[in-house]
Amino acid sequence: MLWIPIDRTKDAPLIRQVYRQIRTAILQGELLAGEKLPSTRELANELHVSRNVVIEAYDQLLAEGYLVTRQGAGTYVAEGTYLEQVPSEQTTSSFEQKVELTPKKDMIDFRSGIPDLTFFPRRIWAKLSYEVCHDISHSLLSYGNPEGVPEFRAILARYLVKTRGVHCQPEQLVITSGATQALTLVAKLLLSEGEQVVIEDPITHDIQSIFKSAGASLYPVPVDEQGMRTELLPSELHPSFVFVTPSHQFPVGGALPIQRRIQLIQFAREKSCYLVEDDYDSEFRYEGAPVSSLQGLDPDRVIYIGSFSKILSPALRLGYLILPLELIERCRQLKWFSDLHTPSLNQIILGRFIEAGHLERHILKMKKRYKKRRDSLLRLLQHYFTDRVKIYGYSTGLHLIAEFQNIDFTEQVIEQIEKAGVRVYPVEQHTIVKGLHSNRLIIGYGHLREEELEEGVRRLGNSEVFK
Ligand SMILES: Cc1ncc(COP(=O)(O)O)c(C=O)c1O
Fold first, then answer.
1. CATH of 14-77, one of 3.40.50.12780, 3.30.565.10, 3.30.200.20, 1.10.10.10
2. Ligand 1 test: best mutation among 111, 175, 181, 280, most atoms within 8 Å of CB?
3. Alpha-carbon distance 150 to 348, whole Å?
4. What is residue 72's predicted lDDT score, i.e. its pLDDT?
5. Closest listed residue to residue 59, CA positions, set 18, 28, 29
6. Strand arrangement of the beta sheet that strand 425-426 belongs to
7. Which of 140, 146, 349, 461 has its CA 20 to 30 A from that of 197?
8. Is 245 in the pocket of ligand 1 (CB under 6 A)?
C-alpha cells in the first residue's frame, strides 16, 4: 500500500497533500510506470480520509497525465513520468540574502537603507488610489509607453527641477522599477564585454554586481569623508562611465564638494564618457539644504538616477532615469524588452501625491523623525564607546559609519556580535580593494525606534567583542 503521511495541522487541503505526494513519488521514480495504484476506496480507508479526497487527487493526476486508467482494471502510473533529479547548484546571491522574510525574533537589526515604514502615508495613499481607480480613463488601464505615464513624467520633471536642481524636460525621463532597474538599464545601454567603469570604492555590493554582470571591469577610486577622491581618477583609462553617489556616498556618507564635482566633469569631458549619478537618499540632509545634483552642472554628460524607495517605500518599486536626449530612444527600447513599462497606476497615484504637496510634507516630517533618531544614536555611541569610536557620514541619510579602534570586523566577529542579539554590517562587505575599512561598521537607524537604538547599542557594547 502507498504510504502517504497526512498532516492535518497544515493549512494545505487534504486533496492537495495526497495529490502532491503521489506526484512526487512518480516524478522521483518511487512509483514506476505501469505500477498499479490502490483503488480510491482502499486508499481512503488507509489514510482515514473521505473517498472524495482520493477521487479528486487521482482525477487531477489523470488530467495532468501522471496516471492512466485501464477499462475495468484500475489506475496505473503512466509511461514517461520519471524525471531524473539533478542536485541544485544554486547558491544564494546577495540579493536573496537581502530579503529576510522572518527576521530573527528580538534581534536588533542595524541594516541600512530601510525607511520607517510605520509612517508610510497609508491614509492619503489609499484615498488617492481610490480616486485614481475611480476616475482614470480606460486607456490608462491598457499597455502604456515604456518611458512611463506622460502626466507623471511632467509632474516629476517639475518636482526634480525644483527640489534637486536638475535640468530636465519630461522627454528626458524614463520611469523605472526602482533605482536597481535604472542601473541595469544604464549597464545595458553603455557597457559591453571588457569595458571599464570607474567607480567609488567602497560602493554597494549590488551595484558592483550589476555592472560586472554586464561584462564590465571595475576600476576602483577610493573615497574619503568627502566622497570620491577625484585626484586619483585614472588618466590612462578610457572608461565607459564614472559611477558616483555625490550627494551621499554609499556607504561612507560624504557629500562631494564642488571642486571635486568640477574635476569629475572635466575628466568626463576629456574622456568623452558619461557620469552616472545615483541620488538614492539625498533628501534626508540634516544640516543645511540638500546638496544640488551633479546633473545640474552638466546635463549632457550626466545620467541621473533617483528612487522613491527611501523617501516612501521600497515596495512601490518606483525609480527614474534622467538621460541626455541622445540616449532616450535606445533606453526606451531596452525598457520595453525588460518589462514593457513600470506599472502605470502607481505612477499616477504618486503623481497626484506630489502635485498635492504630500511628498514634500512627508519628507519634511520624516526628516525631523530621522534627525531625532540620528541624534540619539550619536549620543548612545558616544556614551557606550567614548573615545573608542569615531563617527562619520552622519549628516545625510538613514545610516552612519562607526569606526572602532583595534577591531577587525571579520565574519566571525560579526557572528559573535549576533550572539548578543544585534546585527551589524561591516563596510568591508562593500569594498573592492580589501582591508582599508575593516574596522568600520554601517549602522542603519532610520527604521529603529529610540528604545530599539538604545537596546541595540547597549547589546553591541556588552558583546564579547567589546569586552
Ligand atoms: C546606493 C543605492 N542606490 C540604489 C539603491 C536601490 O534602490 P531601489 O530600491 O530604488 O532599487 C540602493 C538600495 O539600497 C542603494 O543603496
1. 1.10.10.10
2. 280
3. 10
4. 85
5. 18
6. 389-392, 399-404, 440-444, 425-426
7. 146
8. yes
Q: How far is the CA of 280 from the centre of ligand 1 (A)?
A: 6
CATH architecture label of 102-119+363-466: Alpha-Beta Complex (3.90)
Choice from 278, 282, 399, 447 to test ligand 1 binding pocket (greatest atom count within 8 A of CB): 278
Rounded to the nearest whole angstrom, what is the distance from the C-alpha of residue 267 to the centroid of ligand 1? 26
- In ligand 1, the atom with minimum distance to the C-alpha of 203 is 1
CATH number for the domain running over 122-360? 3.40.640.10
Q: What is the pLDDT of residue 104?
A: 66
Q: Using the atom order of ligand 1, give the atom closest to the CA of residue 113.
A: 14
Q: Is the CB of 280 under 6 A from ligand 1?
A: yes
Encoded amino acid at 101, one letter:
L
309 φ/ψ sector (left φ>0, alpha ψ -120 to 50, else beta): alpha
Residue where the block lists cell 512518480 = 26
User: Which residues touch 373 (CB under 8 Å, ≥6 apart)?
Assistant: 445, 446, 448, 449, 450, 453
Q: Collapsing DSSP states into helix, strand and coil, what is residue 67?
A: strand
The number of beta carbons lying within 10 Å of the beta carbon of residue 37 is 21
Q: For residue 319, how far is its CA from the centre of ligand 1 (angstroms)?
A: 9
Nearest to 24 by CA among 8, 40, 7, 4: 4
Query: What is the residue-wise DSSP string for 281-324?
Result: TTT-BSSSSPPPPSGGG-TTTEEEEEESTTTT-GGG--EEEE--
Check residue 131 and give its pLDDT: 98
The residue ranges of the chain whose pLDDT is under 50 are 91-99, 101-102
Q: Which amino acid type is present at position 136?
A: I
216 lines ligand 1 (CB under 6 A): no
Is the beta carbon of 180 within 6 A of some atom in ligand 1? yes
Determine how β-strand 217-224 pairs with β-strand 227-228.
Answer: antiparallel
Q: How far apart are CA 307 and CA 287, in angstroms?
A: 22
According to DSSP, the β-strands at 319-322 and 302-307 are antiparallel
The CB of 319 under 6 Å from ligand 1? The reply is yes
Q: Is 208 in the pocket of ligand 1 (CB under 6 A)?
A: no
Q: Which are the contacts of 26, defined by CB distance < 8 A and separation ≥ 6?
A: 61, 66, 77, 81, 82
For the chain, give every residue range classified as CATH 1.10.10.10.
14-77
Tell how far the Cα of 94 is from the centroid of ligand 1, in angstroms: 13
